[in-house]
């Protein structure tokens, strides 16, 4: 991480408990309170750099107040940012880095540390470091943006958030080899015979990395949701492909939703969400909010988002009791590409208190209905027929035929459930049009299983219903 050294004097600040003292040899004549911490300092170094502190000090002098305490508890960045700003006023050595420059820049703005007060003041120093160093580096831009959360309002007003987002979005939408790595004029990084990177013919000792469109996913997954959303919007504006955006959303969601893709059973999801061995697991309310925001960010386009991700989000949304609109959106997204799903995807555990079935058959019914509606809208509701009544296209190649086979397999899986009522079973079976099943063997197998399980009480009724 890049840094810039400021100041030339040895550190004269000492902390005792919640009290800071400047051990310069002169008695303190002013105290600055920042929350629970107090800084016992001297007026002249402060008023010569800070317009805000100069104004406070002058007002106290003009009013003849004996009190030498100034409360700056609302300073952005808190006591740590003020400590660094005070060291700057005294000319004490410290390092400005991507981790502290945002708080320091906001604190400098709050303290009015402008060029009018002193040439080369803290606002100018932090701005120069941000522009010339931090925003020219991928890693430093991400780190700086991450620190904006605590001072978000001021960081947005000072355009720090926008500049960091623009820097990251520009680099993520470009060839990663062009940023921070030696690059040949035509092609990728030059390498020595031993495989290390070359810069002007000199070995850097670094190893080349593989270029991949997902190289940036892990770095940005550390961002809070509000900042991450800004970044995704900036990337979409720059025309990055929807597939890459979805890949990043998938990676981000998996980092924060412990229950995502836990398919085995309801207890697996519950155990994953309640794990205490992981660090900083969001609350279930936070997870629900995150999932609903991920749903809003996902593109509504067939085939861009994998069925595996969509079903994982749907299972987690059901468990977290997400909003009806979120659940409906996920079901519609799945319905748009149901022909790409697997049987395992459809086996969604039923966690409803009012329904006793093992799997959520109602959910699958709604997904099938969405698929059939989409299929009809796109003109794929039935195969084309020639003049002789023959089917022009091979039914086996049609998405609806693939869905029919999938649903027949699903019906066979849920048929052994004694609590599955006949109307639900029949409704799902009948939802698929007859032409979509070139062969009815799968459906007959499911019906046979269902009748055997229900034989004791439902044979007369079930037999006539399937005839």
UniProtKB/TrEMBL annotation:
Belongs to the NPH3 family. This is Phototropic-responsive NPH3 family protein. Pathway: Protein modification; protein ubiquitination. Residues 28-98 form the BTB domain. It comes from the Eukaryota. It comes from Urochloa decumbens. It holds the Pfam family BTB. Residues 214-467 form the NPH3 domain. The keyword S-adenosyl-L-methionine does not apply. PROSITE patterns: BTB (PS50097), NPH3 (PS51649). The keyword Aminoacyl-tRNA synthetase does not apply. Keywords: Ubl conjugation pathway.
């Amino acid at each position: 991480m890049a840094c810039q050294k400021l100041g030339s004097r040895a550190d004269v600040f000492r902390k005792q408990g919640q009290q800071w003292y400047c051990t310069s040899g002169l008695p303190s004549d002013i105290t600055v309170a920042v929350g629970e911490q107090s800084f016992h300092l001297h007026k002249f170094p402060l008023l010569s750099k800070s317009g805000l502190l100069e104004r406070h000090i002058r007002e106290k002098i003009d009013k003849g107040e004996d009190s030498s305490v100034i409360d700056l508890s609302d300073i952005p960045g808190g006591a740590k940012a003020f400590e660094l700003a005070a060291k700057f006023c005294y000319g004490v050595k410290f390092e400005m880095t991507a981790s502290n420059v945002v708080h320091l820049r906001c604190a400098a703005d709050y303290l009015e540390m402008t060029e009018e007060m002193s040439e080369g003041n803290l606002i100018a120093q932090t701005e120069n470091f941000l522009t010339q160093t931090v925003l020219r580096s991928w890693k430093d831009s991400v780190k700086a943006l991450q620190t904006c959360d605590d001072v978000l309002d001021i960081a947005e007003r000072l355009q720090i958030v926008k500049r960091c987002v623009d820097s990251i979005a520009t680099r993520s939408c470009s060839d990663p080899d062009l940023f921070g790595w030696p690059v040949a004029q035509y092609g990728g990084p030059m390498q020595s015979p031993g495989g290390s990177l070359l810069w002007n013919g000199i070995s850097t000792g670094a190893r080349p990395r593989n270029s991949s469109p997902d190289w940036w996913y892990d770095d940005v997954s550390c961002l809070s949701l509000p900042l991450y959303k800004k970044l995704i919007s900036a990337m979409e504006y720059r025309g990055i492909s929807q597939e890459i955006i979805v890949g990043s959303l998938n990676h981000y969601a998996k980092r924060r939703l412990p229950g995502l893709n836990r398919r085995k059973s309801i207890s697996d999801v519950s155990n994953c969400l309640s794990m205490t061995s992981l660090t900083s697991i969001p609350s279930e309310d936070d997870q629900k909010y995150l999932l609903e925001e991920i749903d809003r960010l996902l593109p509504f386009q067939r085939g861009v988002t994998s069925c595996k991700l969509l079903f994982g989000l749907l299972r987690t949304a059901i468990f977290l009791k997400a909003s009806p609109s979120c659940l409906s959106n996920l079901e519609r997204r799945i319905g748009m590409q149901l022909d790409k799903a697997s049987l395992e995807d459809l086996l969604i555990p039923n966690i409803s208190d009012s329904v006793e079935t093992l799997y959520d058959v109602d959910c699958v019914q709604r997904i099938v209905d969405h698929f059939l509606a989409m299929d009809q809208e796109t003109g794929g509701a039935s195969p084309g027929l020639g003049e002789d009544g023959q089917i022009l296209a091979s039914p086996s190649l049609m998405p609806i035929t693939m869905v029919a086979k999938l649903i027949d397999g699903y019906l066979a899986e849920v048929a052994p459930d004694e609590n599955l009522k006949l109307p639900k079973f029949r409704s799902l079976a009948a939802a698929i049009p007859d032409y979509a099943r070139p062969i009815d063997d799968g459906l007959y197998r499911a019906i046979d299983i269902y009748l055997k399980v229900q034989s004791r009480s439902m044979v007369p009724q079930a037999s006539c219903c399937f005839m």
